[in-house]
Design goal:
- The complex is a heterodimer of chains A (about 240) and B (about 90).
- With about 240 residues, chain A is α+β, with helices and mostly antiparallel strands.
- Chain A has seven helices and twelve strands.
- In chain A, helix 2 (about 45-50) packs across helix 3 and helix 4 (about 105-115) packs across helix 7 (about 225-235).
- Chain A has helices spanning about 20-25, 45-50, 60-75, 105-115, 180-185, 195-210, 225-235; strands at about 1-5, 10-15, 35-40, 80-85, 85-90, 95-100, 120-125, 130-135, 135-140, 155-165, 170-175, 215-220.
- The N and C termini of chain A lie far apart (about 45 Å).
- Chain B has about 90 residues and is α+β, with helices and mostly antiparallel strands.
- Chain B has one domain (about 1-85): Arc Repressor Mutant, subunit A.
- Chain B is about 50% helix and about 20% strand.
- In chain B, strands 2-3-4 form a three-stranded antiparallel β-sheet. A two-stranded antiparallel sheet of chain B has the order 1-5.
- In chain B, a hairpin with a 2-residue loop joins strand 2 (about 5-10) and strand 3 (about 15-20).
- The longest helix of chain B is centred in the last third of the chain and has 17 residues, at about 65-85.
- The termini of chain B are close together.
- Classes of the chains: A alpha+beta (about 240), B alpha+beta (about 90).
- The interface of A and B includes residues 177, 195, 202, 203 and 210 of A.
């Protein structure tokens, strides 16, 4: 048994391989509170995960980590929280999430903010942050699951802005109604197959969209992209 | 007739959406956007097998309109579900 603090939950992760232990080392919990819930990965889970990609053989430790993450996806909505596929930064007291289709450049844009604004920008998570509500305030938390670049902080920020990144030769940023980017957002949510967890995820998404500003960032990969996005999102609110 | 998959229907950002759940989430990925009558029909169909006439009666009752007024939109929606292979069993 190993306890971890994830999104201020005490989570008991029952793992067998060192990969997950090393991955979560920053999130180890040393307090005395009991676990809020348990994530248990079995050898059968690992085999099933491997069977999903029969052409590529992955190390068992890596597969165990993916399984643990999938189980978190199911468990979190039952505790007013969910995992998302996107990156989140903290800047000037705001929590800004970037979502994009795979390969569009979410990580590149995130790094541009860091490059241009340095210490003003803290990367909370570059790939799979947890969103957790306290009353009506959504907080984005860092997690050990942070993509191949491993951009993450064991920290949280109140989420205020949701940005959809689209590639463009020129840079522009504009605000949209949440419903206008619902399709794009739904593609970046990790919808559990469990009906209760799936319904809760939709409820949390609705609550998130009711309090966050929603933006479209059409951008290239120049520093100007971050400067224009910063100026619009941070400067004009 | 009934829905081929199990769905959860919920309003997100003012838009009613349906997503497949359970084992069916592997068969049907994605989200269906529904208007108000579509949402109502989806919710009725989610409860199990029903005849077209019974569905029509429930929709008409819910919106406080006659069955003849409701019939064109209910028929069109059921046709769409059939075309997208989301329905099974006989209905129309």
């Amino acid at each position: 048994m190993a306890l971890y603090s994830l999104a201020d939950f005490v989570v008991d992760i029952e793992n067998k391989y060192d990969f997950l232990t090393r991955q979560c080392v920053e999130y180890q919990y040393s307090g005395t509170a009991p676990a809020d819930f348990t994530v248990r990965v079995t050898e059968e889970d690992i085999r099933a995960e491997q069977n999903m990609t029969p052409d590529i053989r992955y190390p068992a430790g890596y597969l165990e980590s993916v399984c643990a993450y999938r189980k978190l996806c199911i468990e979190l909505p039952l505790h007013d929280a969910m995992l998302m596929h996107g990156s989140v930064i903290s800047c000037c007291g705001r929590g800004i999430a970037f979502f994009a289709r795979s390969g569009v450049g979410k990580t590149t844009h995130t790094m541009l903010w860091k490059q241009v604004y340095g210490e003003q920008v803290r990367i909370i998570n570059g790939d799979k942050p947890i969103l957790r509500f306290f009353d009506d305030v959504p907080f984005a938390y860092g997690t050990p699951w942070a993509g191949k670049e491993k951009l993450q902080s064991n920290d949280r920020v109140p989420l205020t802005d949701i940005c959809f990144i689209e590639r463009s030769p020129d840079n522009s940023v504009f605000r949209v109604e949440p419903v206008e980017r619902l399709n794009a957002l739904m593609q970046q949510l990790l919808l559990p197959s469990d009906p209760a967890a799936a319904e809760k995820t939709l409820e949390l998404t609705d609550r998130m969209l009711s309090v966050c500003n929603v933006w479209v960032i059409r951008c290239n990969i120049s520093e100007e992209a971050a400067i224009i996005a910063y100026g619009t999102i941070i400067g004009e609110i | 007739m009934k829905l081929r998959y199990n769905f959860v229907v919920r309003n997100v950002a003012g838009q009613a959406v349906a997503i497949a759940v359970g084992a069916d989430s592997e068969q049907f990925k994605g989200m269906i956007k529904l208007n108000s009558s579509g949402e109502m029909i989806f919710k009725i169909l989610s409860t199990g097998d029903i005849t077209f006439d019974a569905l029509l009666a429930q929709v008409a009752d819910h919106f406080g309109i006659s069955e003849e007024t409701a019939r064109p939109s209910v028929t069109a929606f059921i046709d769409q579900l059939r075309q997208n292979e989301l329905l099974e069993g006989q209905g129309i």
